[in-house]
């Protein structure tokens, strides 16, 4: 069979190319391949056989190319070069050290690899140049209803059938396609603590989420991130108007105290059961008669709070409510965060002594309800001066502002006396630490997720706008 195309030569040359760049072991394939091909073509095979020979040649070449790799496999997509992104900007606020003038950030496969000045990076890297831009970690809204309350006001963040619904989790009602998530990203917010509302005494389990993803699982950074408690007007109004407990502040605290007592007893029962089971197994006794306590999802969540495994986020504003929260913290040795704390400045030293962070808000805009009659622009500054770790939140929850105003809330705190650096920390690294996700986000450091925002100027300047936002380097 004659043809202008020399199949033997073509196939042999392909093997030569494959083998030439391989390891020494691959060279052994060359004579074997040539011998097999020669034998096939010397037999003057029919066209179908020639096609088969080509196919065999293809398989053999791939096998030869794979020799020398673990398991004899060909190169996988894992061998492809990493995607590298380089950001150059006028100022980089890392929140982990001094600001960098004319700095650089090198991002590799969605994570921060290097931060500094005059860094070297591989050819082919994508470069973003912002000669007047300010780069800082993505902002974090530390008290949010994103994904739970839509723009029409329909709410999924409050289950008001009972004052204690600790068994509920916000991730079971979270809508990743909430339009306000897009609004938040446009404001430079890359993550949020999504929380139940303020009208249940114990509203359920919270979640720290990144504001990107088509599913809840893609969004979640930490769930549960804590359990939401509320002391004050919210529960009084929600249940008092129905003629149910609680209708007073005393009732609010009673519901919490009773629930925590039951949870502590529940935890003790499970500890006793696990101890008994371990002892029986150690002595090789039959464990069939050792009965586990009946599971209670409500008490299960609260038991983790009493053991310090989950943070109690206690929403409280007036000084009497804050005092009640501190008594509960002392009584049950809770790992706690105060939310709101409008009159926190009146008890700043007491809060600091217990090392309790405060998510401050609202302030600087004026009283809107009984709990904020003595709101003060200096609240965050006085708490911070006393040694309290301060976090700032947007005031959307209170109906006083918009998501875009989170940097302006921080600017108001500066006007009230909070140092500028502390105000920046209050919407980045401090928030990440309080939410329990600082190992992943909150500052621009090697190894962390590349969640960052680029402003056209100083983030506290009302004229500055968000030029670019990255979540996971995208």
Quick tags:
alpha/beta; eight-stranded mixed beta sheet; 35% helix; Urease, subunit C, domain 1; globular
Could you walk me through the main structural features you see in this protein, from its secondary elements to its overall organization?
The protein starts with 6 loop residues before the first helix and ends with a strand. The strands form two sheets. The chain has an eight-stranded mixed beta sheet with strand order 5-6-7-8-9-10-11-12, sandwiched between helices. Helices cover 35% and strands 20% of the residues. Mean pLDDT is 84; it is low at 1-34 and 40-77. The chain folds into three domains: 7-77, no CATH class; 83-138 and 444-474, Urease, subunit C, domain 1 (Roll); 139-441, Metal-dependent hydrolases (TIM Barrel), CATH 3.20.20.140. Strand 11, helix 11 (379-386) and strand 12 (390-392) form a beta-alpha-beta unit. By secondary structure, the chain is an alpha/beta fold. Helix 7 (249-282) packs across helix 8 (297-306) and helix 12 packs antiparallel against helix 13 (420-426).
